């Protein structure tokens, strides 16, 4: 497998761990501090890059359990408004969406990657990404986002995702083991088991994304709301970087940057 290249950055292999900073354009987000009001996206993105982000992940629809649904047209409107603020600034961006129409709108603004929690189960979205020649962050999903609880089911789902990437001719794939309360059957212990066995997924031969920032399994253990899950998130992140994560997605770039630096120094030395 050739490592994916995103806006000139190699992902995985011998490359440094890449840091993905989150900007939510959805006021429904489970973590309100990650929401950027219209007109604030450029300032927020510049700030995340100064803190050490390698790329920005923009999303305009909350996928947290219980979040109110919005139309595809509203998602397109939100993402276009955000990307207009970033036009011409050269900031590497991925777009978090499951809809072809949203990706098409983002591509008109030169977006660099797709972040698909649907695991490329939507053929129209997969073809759009393949035709654009952009890499994809693809989550372990069979029919719906995160519908593969447990380590073995996650391995099977990621194997299916790899097959989809190859079938559609995706330019590069970064695997996401789908940590989170995506479906009613998933439990916090499913997430802990995936974290404990994270290195198993790196054995599939593709770079793997660690996306645990402020998620509910950490809150369930510590008994805290999203606003108080930073320390727990950093502890899990350290473990996943030590197990070979190639990219870390986070709401807290500066703190996570320091965790990655320490983990990389411990692993590689000076």
Please tell me how large the radius of gyration is. Answer: 17 Å
CATH superfamily: Dihydropteroate synthase-like
Query: What is the topology, as strand order, of the major beta sheet?
Result: 8-7-6-5-4-3-10-9
Unreliable residue runs = none
- Derived structural class: alpha/beta
CATH level-two architecture: Alpha-Beta Barrel
Query: Count of DSSP E strands?
Result: 10
Number of structural units classed as domains: 1
Summary of the model, kept short:
With 270 residues, this protein is α/β, with parallel strands linked by helices.
Textual characterization of the structure:
The structure is a single chain. The chain has 270 residues and is an alpha/beta fold. The protein has a single domain (17-265), classed as Dihydropteroate synthase-like (TIM Barrel). Helices cover 41% and strands 14% of the residues. It is built from 10 helices and 10 strands. The chain has helices at residues 41-51, 72-86, 100-107, 123-132, 151-168, 188-196, 198-202, 216-222, 230-242, 253-268, and strands at 5-6, 9-10, 18-24, 55-59, 93-96, 113-116, 136-139, 173-176, 209-211, 247-250. The strands form 2 sheets. An 8-stranded parallel β-sheet has the order 8-7-6-5-4-3-10-9, with helices on one face. Strands 1-2 form a two-stranded antiparallel ribbon. Helix 2 (72-86) packs parallel to helix 3 (100-107) and helix 6 packs across helix 8 (216-222). The radius of gyration is 17 Å and the shape is globular. The model has no long low-confidence stretch (mean pLDDT 93).
């Amino acid at each position: 497998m050739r490592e994916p290249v995103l806006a000139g950055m190699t992902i995985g292999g011998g490359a440094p761990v890449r840091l993905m900073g989150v900007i939510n354009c959805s006021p429904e987000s489970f973590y309100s501090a990650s929401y950027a009001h219209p007109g604030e996206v450029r300032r927020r993105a510049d700030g995340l890059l100064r803190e050490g982000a390698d790329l920005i992940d923009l999303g305009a629809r909350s996928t947290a359990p219980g979040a109110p649904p919005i139309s595809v047209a509203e998602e397109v409107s939100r993402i276009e408004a955000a990307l207009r603020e970033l036009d011409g600034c050269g900031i590497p961006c991925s777009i978090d969406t499951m809809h072809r129409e949203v990706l098409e709108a983002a591509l008109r603004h030169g977006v660099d990657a797709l972040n698909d929690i649907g695991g490329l189960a939507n053929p129209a979205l997969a073809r759009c990404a393949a035709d654009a020649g952009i890499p994809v962050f693809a989550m372990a999903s069979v029919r719906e986002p995160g519908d593969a609880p447990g380590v073995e089911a996650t391995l099977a789902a990621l194997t299916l995702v790899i097959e989809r990437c190859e079938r559609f001719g995706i330019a590069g794939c970064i695997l996401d083991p789908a940590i989170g309360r995506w479906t009613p059957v998933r439990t916090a212990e499913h997430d802990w088991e995936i974290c404990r066995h994270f290195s198993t997924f790196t054995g599939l031969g593709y770079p793997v994304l660690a996306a645990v920032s402020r998620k509910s399994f950490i809150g369930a253990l510590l008994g805290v709301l999203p606003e108080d899950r930073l320390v727990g998130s950093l502890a899990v992140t350290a473990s996943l970087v030590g197990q070979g994560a190639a990219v870390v997605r986070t709401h807290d770039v500066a703190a996570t940057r320091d965790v990655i630096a320490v983990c990389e120094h411990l692993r590689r030395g000076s």
